Amino acid sequence: MKIILASKSEIRKKILDKNNVSSIVVPSNVDEDQVKESLLVVGANPLLVSKNLAELKSTKVSIKYPNQIVLGADSVISLNEELVNKPKTRNEALKILKKLNGSLHYLITSVCISRNGAMIWNFTDSSELKMKKLSDNELKSYLKKIKTETLLAYGVYQIEAGGLELFESVKGDRDSIMGLPIKQIIDYIKTLS
Q1: Which pLDDT tens digit goes with each residue over 67-125?
Q2: 74 catalytically annotated
Q3: pTM across the whole model
Q4: In whole angstroms, what is the distance from residue 102 CA to residue 36 CA?
Q5: Is the Cβ–Cβ distance between 139 and 92 less than 8 Å?
Q6: Contact 1/188 with Cβ under 8 angstroms?
Q7: CA distances (Å), 8 to each of 18, 30, 39, 59, 86, in order?
């Protein structure tokens, strides 16, 4: 069964490929910032933001592809129940890392599968990450290793690309932290065939 991945994330595509889940990429082009703002105005917490974005991405694409299985996903950082957004500049990335520095935060990843414009399944996973207490120079040194477009697209750290060095402890599923709780997705897809 071939699924449609409603995401531009190369990492998510790699996770599907590595697990023999045949997929094509059709980005949803959802304005995430606008959606986040409107959800935060009505008091949504980071978990709800993640769930809503994953559903919006998958349903938007599934309307255009009748009878196809469409997977949408979203990951957000929650620090003290507050949403930490992706940086828009390298300067902002440094500010975010300083905010997370030495702190415990949660990476919430939500996935949604839709068909014909309606959600048919969803799942949300939360991983606990405790960042080491690092000096400003160590944070700047880490950021220098990451390309600007990667930083702005995926957030301030990439576990799969050296980001692990920032953490004292990581509790959670590695694939989920990288963007897709693949085990649960595969288990659900099997029920469809």
Answers
A1: 999 999 999 999 999 999 888 888 998 999 999 999 999 999 999 999 999 999 999 99
A2: yes
A3: 0.92
A4: 26
A5: no
A6: no
A7: 17, 11, 22, 16, 15
92 Cα distance to chain centroid = 19
Helix, coil or strand: residue 172? coil
The runs of H, that is alpha helices, within the chain are 10-18, 32-41, 46-64, 90-100, 136-144, 148-154, 174-178, 182-192
In angstroms, rounded to a whole number, what is the distance separating the alpha carbons of residues 143 and 38?
30
Q: Are 176 and 127 in contact (CB under 8 A)?
A: yes
60 vs 71: CA distance, rounded Å: 11
Q: Are 60 and 30 in contact (CB under 8 A)?
A: yes
Q: CATH top-level class for 3-192?
A: alpha beta
Q: Which of 17, 74, 136, 173 is catalytic?
A: 74
